[in-house]
Design brief:
single chain, alpha/beta, Rossmann fold, 2 domains, 13% strand
């Protein structure tokens, strides 16, 4: 990764804990300057302290990524502090236990405004400058397997992460058409990861959950290969199982099955046979 080197700068949203903080640690260990962005002031300051003392500079910024003006102001502050940006990791995310798809409109607004529009705001604010300096750089957007297979229950979250998938694919395609661009785009697709966001709903880490550290290990190896789709495993879900689940979801369209047939009682036996076959 020719952008991940001493003196370059990475910006990570959702950096007060979990995947964001672990990613920031790797960037700092490579000697990069790191800007940590979050809304949790105390945890953010602790993260800044933990990362300080290395070869690069570390700074923290309180910012609501759902607010486009706030993200533009963040960009101005970050560029004033560090200059050129070489890695933008849009990782900020929120979740909420789901209800029915036609209930809790406020949850849809809040989750989409952070999980999807926060990514859009980050790219609109930072990418023109990254293209402008012409140096190797990367955009990493955090999606979710739930944005691909869309299991019933957490409908607003699924919708937001499906949007991140589509938007990041569009960025990757558009960058290929951009003459002289040295920016790569990547979609991080975590498995079930035990993060501070998850711990709000599940107090103890389940044995089948991945850790943020394991997830970022996999991400770094995938970035080194130049992967766009960074499909992360967890202790319960190896890649072959993910592939079958994703294939079944896609085949709902081709085979004209009911929506989300993987969870339809009439298809229970067929799903089991397909997964185990």
């Amino acid at each position: 990764m020719n952008w991940m080197k001493s003196g370059n700068t990475a910006i990570v949203t959702g950096a007060a804990g979990g995947i964001g903080l672990e990613s920031a640690k790797r960037f700092a260990a490579a000697g990069m300057n790191v800007g940590l962005v979050d809304m949790k002031a105390d945890a953010l300051k602790e993260s800044e302290t933990a990362l300080s003392g290395g070869a690069g500079k570390v700074a923290s910024y309180i910012c609501d990524v759902s607010d486009a003006d706030a993200v533009n102001a963040l960009r101005d502050r970050v560029e004033g502090d560090f200059g050129k940006i070489h890695c933008l990791m849009n990782n900020a995310g929120i979740g909420r236990m789901g209800t029915k798809p036609w209930e809790d409109l406020e949850a849809f607004h809040s989750i989409i405004s952070v999980n999807l529009m926060g990514v859009v705001h980050g790219c609109h604010a930072f990418m023109p400058g990254m293209l402008g300096h012409g140096e190797p750089a990367a955009v990493i957007n955090t999606g979710s397997k739930q944005g691909i297979t869309r299991p019933p229950g957490n409908y607003a979250y699924n919708l937001s992460k499906s949007g991140v998938l589509a938007y990041t694919e569009s960025i990757a395609h558009a960058l290929r058409q951009e003459e002289g661009s040295q920016i790569s785009a990547h979609l991080l697709i975590p498995a079930f990861v035990y993060t501070p966001m998850v711990s709000a709903f599940i107090p103890e880490k389940p044995p089948f959950a991945a850790t943020a550290d394991e997830t970022v290990d996999f991400m770094m190896a995938s970035l080194e290969r130049g992967d766009f789709y960074i499909l992360c495993p967890d202790p319960e879900t190896p890649r072959p199982l993910d592939e079958k689940r994703i294939q079944w979801t896609a085949d709902d369209i081709f085979q004209n099955r009911p929506a989300l047939s993987r969870w339809h009682p009439d298809y229970e036996a067929a799903v089991k046979a397909f997964i185990e076959g």
